[in-house]
Each structure stands twice: as C-alpha cells, then as structure tokens.
Amino acid sequence: MAKDKSGYIIAAAFIGPGTVTTASLAGANFGFHLVWALLFSIFATIVLQDMAARLGVATGKGLASAMKDMVSTPWLKMLFIALIVSAIGIGNAAYESGNLTGAAIGLDAFWEIGTGTWAFILGALAIALLWTGSYSWIESVLVYLVFIMAGVFFVTLVVAKPDISLMFSQLLQPRLAADSITTILALIGTTIVPYNLFLHASLVAKSSPNTDKTTSENPNTENQSTIKKNSDKSDAIKACRKQSATAISMGGLITLVVMATAMMAFFNQAATMDAGNMGEQLKPVLGDKAQWFFALGLFAAGLTSAITAPLAAAYAVCGALGLSDDMKSKGFRTVWLAIIVCGVAVAALGFKPLPAILFAQATNGLLLPIIAIFLLVVMNKSKALGDFKNTLWSNIAGVLVVSVVVGLGLYKLTSLFI
C-alpha cells in the first residue's frame, strides 16, 4: 500500500478540517490576496516531501531514525531525540485537537450534543480503529468523502460564475500584514504539515528496495547486486516523486477552490463567516442542504486526519527512541494513544472551534522550520543516502523554503511586540 498510495495518503492527511476551515477563512477575509501563500506552500510541500520520500527509499529508515543515526556524540544525540519527540508531540497534539474539533463541528450540525462530547466520541473511535492495527479501509472511505466534497466545491465555483478578473487582480496584489500573518502561517501549516514528513518517509521505507540484505563472496556478483539495488531505488524514487507531485498539487487545487467559493460568498459582503454559516458557500448548488453536506465533509476530513496525525507521531517518536514501529507494539500504541488523549482533552475544554483550528495550523507553521532544517541536514550528511543525497538544486529549493518559513515566523513574533 505504501508504495502505491503514499503520495495520496499524504495529500489526504493535509486535506483535513484545518485545510477547509483555514482556506475558507482566508477566502472570506482576504479574497485571493493570500493565494501566494498557498502556491508557496504547494511548492514547499513537494520539495520537502520529495526529500522525505527519497530518504525512506534510499535508507529503508524513517526520518526520525535517520536523524538519530546521523549524530554520534551522545549528548547531541539525546538533544536530537528530545527535539524530535517534543516538536512532533507538541505539534501533533495541537493538530489533533484541531482535527477532532473540526470533525465535532460537523457532527454537531446533525445532532447537537456539544463539540466536546463529539470530540470524546471521535477520539474513542480513532482509538478503536488504530488499536486494530488495520485502518486503511476506513481511511479510504473517508478520503472518498473528502474528495466528493471537493467535487461539490468545484461544481459550486462553476455555477457561481466567479469574477475571474477580480481573482486574478487580487492574486497579483499579494498581502503581508499584521492582520493576515496568522492566516498566512495557518495556510502554510495546514499544507506543509511537519508530521507528514515523518509519515511519508516511514511509509515508503517499508516498501523500499533496501530491504534485501543478502551478500555474496563473489565481488562481481555483489557489485551487480548493488547496481541492481540502486537502479531499483532510483526507479522507486522517480515513481514516488511523480505520484507525490500529482497528489499534492491536486490537494492544493482543492484548497484553492475552497478559498474561491468562500471569497464569492463572504468577501466584501455584509455577512461574516463563522462556524455556523461556513456551509453557505455551497448554497448555489446544494441550497438548504449545503450546511449538512459541509458538516459531513468536515467530519470525514477530521476523522481521517485524526487517525493519520497520531500514527505519524508514533512513527516519529518510536524511530527516535529506537522502539518497534509495528502498529500492534506496546510502545507504538502508547504514543498514538497519548496524542489522541491530549487532542480530546484540548477539544473538550470548550475553546471556540474556529480559533482552535486556526491556532493548530499556525502552530504547525511555527514548528515547521525545526523539522525542515533537520531534514536538510540529514539529506546532505547521512552516509546511508549515497548517490541519493540532495543535489545543488534540491538544496537551493530547501533553503528557500526554510528561509521563507523562518522569516514569516519571525515576522509573526515581531508583530506581537510592536
């Protein structure tokens, strides 16, 4: 599965309630003035996920294991482990609360028992699914639901007859100001998801051609085997790169369409968007049923991401601590269980839903530079990569991505004090 579907799993993982909510808020509040942030996010996601996948194929290891193995000094290795565990743990706990809150909003539109109660029920469902060690079938169903919702957004946009010239005009007038920086970071955080780097590397590592460890006393035979293995890795990397670029671009297009429909419904209009009327943007096609369909989409997107976020955290933490990454192992289950419990606790405390989701995405945007810098270092220093290390162009693209994200983060911190 990982070899054939990893790119689409990554795309489905970032098309969660945070994406739908953040893109809707961006379109409603800023029109197309922030599309530049989305376009940058798609480019950056393709660049970073390519590095993560290449690492997994070339070494047969996850990102956390590769980071840890790269360091030989004991105290520095412990620092690395602490940073990986804390960064992914904190980031995924925040992300999980947003996922569960988004799904709870959707269900509460059908049956009003409170988002806190729904978050508890959804957390229990996610625990039950992950405890079985086999979640792919339910994930596939939820991904289909998300893409069905995306199809309705596409149809809605066409029926609404958008003002293309206005959109293009706003696209050419990018905005970066104190009132938009949180939304910009949220757009970046909901697309370039740090935990997806760990998830992608681990998924492709399990199907890597690197798994053959046999050796031969005949140097010629061993050399031929090495050449064949490298050729297989190269082919796997090319296929993974093509699939990831296609899937991530598709996810970006869905996000763009959500922004466009929200812009048409709310930007410069008398009504303001909140949790109760987000589905209004679908009314041109679905009429009075728009809110219900939007709620169903939020539920599907939220539960999908609520499963993948703790799963990725388990891969990252277990890799860093040298624990088994078998889904049924005690350590693996402990990690994802802790993430879900934290997510449920935060979601059940009664925070306002839209700020909670936006905060989760912005948190990921601030944590991203830490993981991206580590990934860049690994892709240049790891001896296990061999011929599959970063090229000059990969490094230039990676440094550009990290520089922009760090710059935006510093701008956000500066705006808090000035």
From TrEMBL:
Residue ranges with Polar residues bias: 208-228
The keyword Metal-binding is annotated on this UniProt entry: no
Cellular location(s): Membrane
Membrane spanning stretches: 7-28, 34-53, 74-95, 115-134, 141-160, 180-199, 247-270, 290-323, 335-351, 357-379, 391-411
Span list, region Disordered: 208-234
Biological process annotations from GO: iron ion transmembrane transport
Membrane-related topology note: Multi-pass membrane protein
Gene Ontology MF terms in the entry: cadmium ion transmembrane transporter activity; manganese ion transmembrane transporter activity; symporter activity
Keyword terms of this UniProt record: Membrane, Symport, Transmembrane, Transmembrane helix, Transport
GO cellular component, one term: plasma membrane
InterPro entries, A to Z: NRAMP_fam
Matches recorded under NCBIfam families: Nramp_1
Record protein name field: Manganese transporter
Phylogenetic lineage: Bacteria, Pseudomonadati, Pseudomonadota, Gammaproteobacteria, Alteromonadales
